[in-house]
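Repro case for the chain-ordering regression, as requested:
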Amino acid sequence: MPRTELEYPKEPYGTVKRYSPRASYALRTIHTIINTSPILHVSFNDPQSPFPTILPMLGQMGSFSRPSADEGDVLDLYLHGYVSSRLINISRHQPSDASSASTSTSTSSTSSPSSPLPGLPVCVAASHLDGLVLALTPNAHSYNYRSAILFGHATLVSEPAERLYAMQLITDGVVPGRWEGSRVPPNKGELSSTSVLKVRIATGSAKIREGPPGDDRADKEDKNVTGRVWTGVVPVYQVLGEPVAGPYNEVAEVPGYLGEYVRETNLVTKEAAFEAARKVAVKKGGEDE
Amino acid sequence: MPRTELEYPKEPYGTVKRYSPRASYALRTIHTIINTSPILHVSFNDPQSPFPTILPMLGQMGSFSRPSADEGDVLDLYLHGYVSSRLINISRHQPSDASSASTSTSTSSTSSPSSPLPGLPVCVAASHLDGLVLALTPNAHSYNYRSAILFGHATLVSEPAERLYAMQLITDGVVPGRWEGSRVPPNKGELSSTSVLKVRIATGSAKIREGPPGDDRADKEDKNVTGRVWTGVVPVYQVLGEPVAGPYNEVAEVPGYLGEYVRETNLVTKEAAFEAARKVAVKKGGEDE
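-- result from build under test --
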């Protein structure tokens, strides 16, 4: 674990331009938002299409070479080829190792993307909605949210051991402990039929908004407006419901790791949404919209 | 309202290739998933960047020329330039009206994207997570979800009346009735400082997964596995919490339209997640993974 918080480089394409006090480039902040997002949106360009494409995928950040690395460290993003094989197929036709890279000697995941790194250029986004911010005027309406994007190069993981590492990482990302709680290890067929993409991160950023509405002074001082328009935050959070056993389930009780995960997640997410709603803005000046 | 359900054309870049029984091209299905998604992920290419970019934005589908159109009709997507002005700036430099379009006489929003329509090519994605599908093996794990993507061309809305229409559409998309419940109409400054993007849709698709896990027969018939691994679905749904009044709120009671929206949304989303978890697969053959 690094002693100081690492930050991603501020590349022109990756810099948050608006409301920049809300921006963060800290690896820990960004990686945590990505890892707690059950669905990631992955964008890439298909040479056959006039449009960029977005696929919803599962993913987790980790380090195969140093599995003990935590969320504040330099990590790779592993994506499961869950939703479509199009991205996998395009990645297959990208140069897949460093031999085609530039003469640059940089091996860091945060090396400049201007050097022609191998892999398919992708953008990955994760967004958590924490509240509806209802202000006096439509323009000052907002959301409380935590969002992150990462830019990087995706290649197919060819090494079986690394694919196995990523499969466990992603399965335990859905419910911690689920890997050991299911029928493992995968057999040969399962292992060979699973495609895992690894994204080497070039840079990324996060944006976080919390706190109550922030209207313009003119509206806040207009009694005709404040006397009529309710202002505040509707906290929003995701709930895990009571597990529903499937048709061929033969285990009478919901396993401990699962029950605990459901209870803890529900406590944490609800509390975080209410905390964000009640947060007092620290900065001076009031309005943030 | 059309008598038959309209469908988007199946373009090669927009066709769902995997698990195609889960795919839908019906406008109503796709538009409903988009309109009920509080955050949309919008992807585009910035000529300055080696990567595609994704921005989280607010948006709603509507028809300015026929406001009574419903979700099964041909609609445009209106996006609020909420999160970043980068997309707005790039769109500003795109040809913004039909004068630069091809000689094609098609005026339909679903016209072929191979004709050089004006605007910035974008992809818009919305994903709702409805459940964690926990199967016997990691490979058969899945989510219950509803996801949709749209492909289209984005241009800035220059007409003030259309911008006002879109602002109301998007505000009421956050909480129905909120537009009238807030200080409206926007003043001149608010109206001119708000950027609205309109996406003319080329095509789109949806994917929906519901129901219990579907493992391979070999695992389902292995008592060593079924006797040890719990299988089923953890329903997932978004909850709107009790509204939290802001620091300058002077309206004692939460307004009726807001309280009702919170109550109704919570009922519907919870029920939908449990219903998806319990859904019996209609198709024969069992396994779907």
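Ordering looks correct now. Residues 20-101+115-278 of chain A form a domain with the Pnp Oxidase; Chain A fold (CATH 2.30.110.10).
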